[in-house]
Structures are given as C-alpha cells and as structure tokens.
Design goal:
It holds the Pfam family Helicase_C_2. It is found in: Nucleus. InterPro entries: ATP-dep_Helicase_C, DinG/Rad3-like, DNA/RNA_helicase_DEAH_CS, HBB, Helic_SF1/SF2_ATP-bd_DinG/Rad3, Helicase-like_DEXD_c2, P-loop_NTPase, RAD3-like_helicase_DEAD. Its main location: nucleus. The chain has an eight-stranded parallel beta sheet, with helices on both faces. The chain is globular. The two termini are 16 Å apart. The chain has 37 helices and 19 strands. It is an alpha/beta fold. Helix 28 links the parallel strand 15 and strand 16.
Length: 800
C-alpha cells in the first residue's frame, strides 16, 4: 500500500509483484478507493483483467472492501464524529463489463454460443434503421432506451458484477439490456472492471467512455475530467504477458482465402452503393459532407453499430484532418480497396519467405497499385463510415475487408515498430499456403495512448519478475515504484526443487540437442513414476510445447511408463481443442475429489498454464519438464529480437531468458493460490541451476529455495518432496494472535500496541497513518526509526 500510495502521490506509474493468494486484489482496491475518497478530484479506477472469472472475483473483492468501509463509517457517524465526505458515506458505483455473449439476456440471442454470431444478431435487433422499420426489435434494448429518457442514472450506487446486471436485465422492474446498461453506467462509475482488450486493442477500445472523471448524480462531471492528462488510474492485473497482448492487438494476418473473401465483400458493397444511389442518394451525399469536415465528425458512428469505439491507432494530429479527396466518394474508396487487395494477391506469390519494412511496402503500393500512402492512414475510419452509411447490420460478414483496412491503416501510419513477413509455408513444410503478416514489434505503441491519457498506470502480477524489463519494453516513463514483495507464512508451505540429472548422472534437459536422447526421456519418465507413488491427490506437469509433449508421450508409451503410471493415478492430457481440454479438466478434478488422484499433462503458454488454478488437493506438486523457450527460428520472433536489440539495447539471450522464466513462473504459480495452501515445485532441467535462470525466479519462490535443493538427482528430489508433504500433512494449529500469517482485527490492534511501546512520540507523529512495526515501508523519514522492542516475536521482527 505504501509503494502504491507513493506512486499515486507522485502521479506516476508502478510495477509491483505480490504473490498470488496473499491479498493483491483487495490491497489494490482498499488503497485506491480510499485514495479516491480522500481526493474527490481523482478520476475513476479502471481495473483490467484477462478472463471473466477473474473479473467476477475482482468485483466480489471490491464489494467486501466497500461494505467494510461503509460499516466502519456508519459506526464513526453514530459515535458522533463529523459526517464523512463523499457519496453516501462511502458508497460508490462500480460495474463489470464483458462481451455481449456473456451479458445478453435475450431469450433467443443468449442461446448462441459463438461470440460473433451473438454480436451479429444483437446488431440486427438494435440497429436504428431496423427499429425505425419495426421489422425486428429487442424488448430489453427498448426498455434501456426508455429508461434513459426517464432517469439520468439507471442504478443507484453499489457494486454490480456481470451476473448482477444480468439479473437486473431479467427482472420485470428493470428489464433493460445489461450490456448497453453497463456501457452507460461506466460514465458515472468510480470503478470499472473489464478486459484488457477494451483498453489496449484499438479495434474495441473504450477510450471515449473511460476518459475523464466519473459523473456525479444528475450528470455533472467532477473537476479535472477535461484535462489533457486525465486524473484516472489504470491497473493491469496478471500483467506478466501484457507486452504480448499489446503486440497481438496491433498485428494482422492475411492469406489467399481471406483476400478472396475481401473481393466478395467489395463486390457486395459496390452493389449496395449503386442501390442506395437510386433509392436514397442523400445518404451518400450527407456522408460526403461529413468526410470533408474531418475524421472526428466522420467517426461518430451510431452507438448501436460501433459501440462508440475510438481507434487510438491514429495519432491525434490526424484525427482533425479531412479525409483525402480520392476516397471521399464511396465508389472511389471501393476502387482503392480493390487495387490494394489485388496488390496483396500478387505480393503473396512467393516461393521463399521474406521480410520488409512498412516504408518499402508503401513504396511498392505507390508504384504498382497507384495508391497514395497518405490515403492508407484513413482506410479504417473510412470503411467504418461507409458501413454505417449503408446501414450494414451484419458486420461479421465484412470481417475480411475490415482486416485488409486495418492492415493498410497500420502500414500507412507507422514507419517503425512493424515488419511485414511473407511466409509460403506457415504451418508445415510441403503445405503451400502463403500468409502475409503485419507484425508489431514494439509493444509500447499499443500502450502509449494509455500512458499519455491516464495519470497513473499500475502493472501487477504474482509472477512479473524481473521488474525492470517491463518499463523498458513498454516505454513507461515516470516509474515511481518497482517492488517485489515476499510472502509471510506461519510454516514453510513451498518446496522448490531443481533437478539437474537422473540417478545415472545423465543431465536432463529439453534443449533441442538432447530431445532425442533416450536417457533424458527415460529419466523424465522415471521421475514421473516415482512422483505418482509419493505425491497424494493432484500432480500437474508442464511441457515446453505440444510437439514435445507428443514426442515424450510416444516414447513413454513404448517403454511402458504410461501403463506403470496408470496403476497409481489416472492420466489426463491438454490438447489444442478447448472443449476437449475443459472436459479433461473436469474429469481430473473429479478424480482428485474421489481420493484416487490424477496426473494432468499440460503445455506452457497454453490455456491451462494461463488461467486455471490447481489450488488445494488439485495441485500438490507441479513439474516443469524443460525450459519453455519460444521457437527461436520463428521469423516473427527473430524480427522482434532484432528490434529490441537495436532500439532498447536488449540482448537476444536476455529477452529469451526473461520470456522463458516468466512462463515457467506462471506455471509454478498455478498450485499456490492462498497463504494456507502448500505444494512442491520441481524444475526438471539442468539449465534452471544456472544463475541467469535462477535469478529470474520470483523472489517469493526463490526465498524458499534451499542451497541443497539446487543441484539434485531425480531420486533425491522425490525423497525431499515426500518428506515435505509428510511434514505438511501433520495436524497444525494456526495462530490467531500476533505472529499469524493472516491477522485478525484484534491481533492487528495487539501488533500496533506493541509497536507503540517501541517508538517515541515524535516518530509516531511522523508516521501516524502507518503502524509503527511496519516502518520498514518507505516513509521518507529524515532519520531511520529505532529498532523494535525485544518483546516482539520472531514474525514481527521479520516484518520489521
């Protein structure tokens, strides 16, 4: 909290690592919401998560914090203190927002499982021209529209999860659409919880709705909402892969099939333009007038069509420019896109892979297709305007041509930070399917608008080491706080082990030169066989890739390892199929619940490694078979490594080690989900014993790594794991007073009282808002505080 407050006071950014399960989310909400209450001019908190379950969990944590705050303030008010400032004695408005598929309550639309199909059906029911013709409508959207006309705010202050809004939508008293209601409530909310994409991805950005300070009841804006740097706070939770999210949001892939579909889209748009010319020519004329005035007017697409999306792809100086005259007329714009599609088709006719920069491709477009490079920058907005003018509801059908427009818009806007790769054999040797890839190399491009727009940006995760790498690759300046916090436990609940060789002294590693070595695969199989006989309940194993997993499984099946493992535990495997993997996970949990136990073989960077928790008996041991390096011969990776070396002076080996170890740490963190959980972490590769790898393990894991557990044989590691699990299985009476890892309110008061005896009155005045025993936190004191009194126990001294 002190590090976070220091960053907020300085109006700067921070990168904070805190072990999972130790209260990271509730700490963030407690400090920031209190800071908002103490500083009414501060804007909203935008809390970004990766998945819907994480979002729901975060909103529930926020509800607990605010309920506690309201309760405490009510007691203080009853005791005769002054009435607290702020909304209704501590109450706030907070909402969660997700895609239509997760929020829709329409009886027919909500049955569809496909996201694109749900979006398409929703637009067909809510488009203004559809409602005017009364051909179809959504009763929930109609109630939303009528509710907006009757009242300025749809809901009273409170904390609303996605499920809460869906319940309101199905309630007869309210009945409005939860999705559009949530988008409306964002403008008046103090806290917004949503997905990364709504902030980082320019195609779905909510910059217009999230900007400024939350409005007060009655629609009035708080002071400070119109400044160039908005006094709002953005938190990216689980931000260990945020650079990959930024890069993916600005990368586009095109192949021959997509280009063929784009040609079909252009033909249909051309026919639609001719039809509108005959039936309602004034529509096209009005659009032309708007385009002359500039992009800002042209981009005001109807909310039902484009959801008030603003694209931060374009720099601010282009937004006010008028669209070039050669693409203002709809038919001229279609002709331009057709020339671009034909150029891409010709460009794909290659036999060898090649890479080029944006300027080189723009020059070829000017020479071969007679396309002005300035026109490319406006293709995205121009296409959106045309689709709106033609009253196209089924936007998903025009995804191919939209991708082409995104491709050339990025191509014409940025001369650096991108590369164009043409790969004739993207999947496997012998299958000719040329792919045109516009690959973003600079993650800072996507997050730059966020850093410029908001006062403070906080990156946090349980596995975000090394901290200094993220500000560098994201272009974060004014970073006030970078700190990795350890974990306080009443007993040693983690047992990390580094296995470097088998009983036969043969080194074990997943490096490419040793993958075919039978002794390595045999030692890995022997390690798994011994673990299933030692570890109770769930055992989770991670491999470096699907290909390596299949290769090892094939050898294990031939040598009988699989059959011997199945005598002790059931075996489940993650596949590339999400449905099959989900089914396997459910069966794995059932096997663990039944007491039989199971083994789950997974892949680093896969679905399980990123979003599935194996808490309690579902994961008593996690094994990493190898170091999860990226495929180093990938052309996209090679281009990014070259860019990082040239622009950020980051060596290839440095970034590859950083990327591999953050993925490894993420896999290991799956089994520890609370301070009372315990588990064994096994690094099964000799390279983990090297200092360049070991130093990048998060501090809270490395703290438990004993010197004797660094260079271990597999049989000794299994023995150490058995002893640890035997010790942890013994009855344990948790402490409830001072010295416990989770303090009760009474224990906290005891700790404060003991600390008060160890500090003089002057020191207390300087640090009145913090408990004296916690003075190890940075308080900017002119002189160091006195040491604690001798009557403090060992845990309190450790906190000191």
């Amino acid at each position: 909290m002190c590090e976070l407050k220091r960053a907020l006071d300085a109006k700067g950014n921070s990168v904070l690592e805190m072990p999972t399960g130790t209260g990271k989310t509730v700490t963030l909400f407690s400090l920031i919401t209190s800071y908002q209450w103490a500083h009414p001019e501060l804007g909203r908190l935008v809390y970004c998560t990766r998945t819907v379950p994480e979002m729901s969990k975060a909103v529930e944590e926020l509800r607990k914090v605010i309920d506690f705050r309201v309760e405490v303030l009510a007691k203080e008010l009853d005791a005769g203190s002054e009435a607290p400032k702020g909304l209704a004695a501590g109450h706030i408005l907070a909402v969660g927002l997700s895609a239509r598929r997760n929020m829709c309550v329409h009886p027919e639309v909500s049955k569809e499982g496909d996201r694109e199909r749900v979006d398409e059906m929703c637009r067909q029911l809510t488009a203004p021209w559809t409602r005017e013709k009364k051909t179809a409508s959504c009763v929930h959207f109609e109630k939303y529209e009528s509710a907006l006309g009757q009242q300025s705010q749809l809901l009273d202050t409170g904390i609303y999860t996605i499920e809460d809004l869906r319940v309101k939508g199905m309630d007869k008293e309210y009945g409005w659409c939860p999705y559009y209601a949530a988008r409306r409530l964002i403008q008046a909310s103090s806290v917004v919880v949503l997905n990364y994409q709504y902030v980082l991805d320019p195609k779905v950005s909510l910059a217009s709705s999230l900007g400024g300070a939350p409005s007060l009841p009655g629609g009035k804006m708080r002071a400070g909402g119109l400044s160039s740097i908005e006094p709002s706070i953005v938190v990216f939770d689980e931000a260990h892969n945020i650079d990959d999210v930024c890069i993916e949001s600005l990368s586009v892939k095109l192949n021959r099939q997509r280009l063929d579909q784009s040609s079909g889209n252009l033909t249909r748009l051309g026919n639609e333009i001719e039809r509108v010319k005959k039936e309602d020519a004034s529509r096209l004329q009005e659009e032309y007038k708007r385009l002359v005035q500039g992009l800002r007017q042209a981009g005001q697409i109807d909310e039902a069509m484009a959801d008030q999306l603003q694209s931060p792809v374009l720099p601010e100086d282009l937004v006010s420019e008028a669209i070039p005259g050669n693409i203002r007329r709809a038919e001229h714009f279609i002709a331009l896109l057709r020339r671009i599609v034909n150029f891409c088709r010709r460009y794909l006719h290659v036999e060898r892979a090649q890479c080029e920069g944006p300027l080189s491709i723009c020059h070829k477009l000017e020479e071969d297709a007679e396309v002005d490079s300035k026109s490319l920058k406006f293709c995205h907005e121009r296409l959106r305007s045309l689709l709106n003018t033609l009253q196209v509801s089924n936007l998903e059908e025009f995804t191919p041509i939209t991708k082409v427009a995104d491709f050339v818009t990025l191509l014409g806007t940025y001369s650096q930070g991108f590369t164009i790769i043409v790969d004739p054999y993207p999947e496997a040797q012998g299958i000719y399917d040329p792919t045109l890839i516009l690959r973003c190399l600079d993650a800072s491009i996507a997050i730059r608008p966020v850093l410029k727009r908001y006062q403070s940006v906080v990156l946090t995760s349980g596995t975000i080491s090394p901290l200094e790498m993220y500000p560098k690759i994201l272009g974060m300046s004014n970073v006030v706080a970078t700190e990795s916090f350890s974990i306080t436990m009443e007993r040693k609940c983690l047992c990390p082990l580094i296995v470097t060789h088998g009983p036969d002294q043969v080194p074990i590693s997943s490096r490419f030169s040793l993958r075919e070595d039978p002794s390595v695969v045999q030692n890995y199989g022997s390690l798994l066989e011994q673990l299933v006989q030692t570890v109770p309940d769930g055992l989770v194993c991670f491999f470096t890739s699907y290909r390596y997993l299949e290769q090892v499984l094939e050898k294990w099946y031939e040598t009988g390892v699989i059959s011997r493992v199945l005598k002790h535990k059931l075996l489940f495997i993650e596949t590339a199929d999400v449905v099959a993997t989900t089914y396997a996970l459910n069966l794995y949990r059932q096997a663990c619940d039944s007491g039989q136990g199971a083994v789950f073989l997974s892949v680093a960077r896969g679905k399980v490694a990123e979003g599935i928790d194996f808490d309690r008996h579902y994961g008593r041991c996690v094994v990493l078979f190898g170091v999860p390096f990226q495929y180093t011969l990938s052309r996209e990776l090679r281009a990014r490594l070259e860019f990082l070396r040239q622009h950020y002076d980051i060596k290839e080996s440095e970034f590859l080690n950083f990327d591999a170890m953050r993925q490894a740490s993420q896999c290991l963190g799956r089994v520890i989900r609370s301070k009372r959980d315990y588990g064994v972490m096994i690094f099964a590769d000799q390279r983990y014993a090297r200092s360049d790898k070991r130093s990048k393990i998060p501090d809270w894991i490395r703290h438990f790594l004993e010197p004797g557990h660094v260079f271990m044989a597999s049989d000794l590691a299994v023995e150490a794991a058995g002893n640890f699990l035997l010790q942890m299985s013994q009855p344990f009476e948790e402490k409830t007073g001072v010295g416990a890892s989770v303090l009760t309110p009474q224990a906290l008061q005891e700790l404060q009282a003991e600390g008060s005896k160890a500090s003089d009155s002057k020191e207390m005045e300087k640090s009145a808002i913090f408990a004296p025993p916690l003075k190890r936190l940075k308080l900017n004191l002119s002189t160091p505080p006195d040491p604690p009194s001798s009557n403090l126990d060992a845990v309190s001294k450790q906190i000191w």
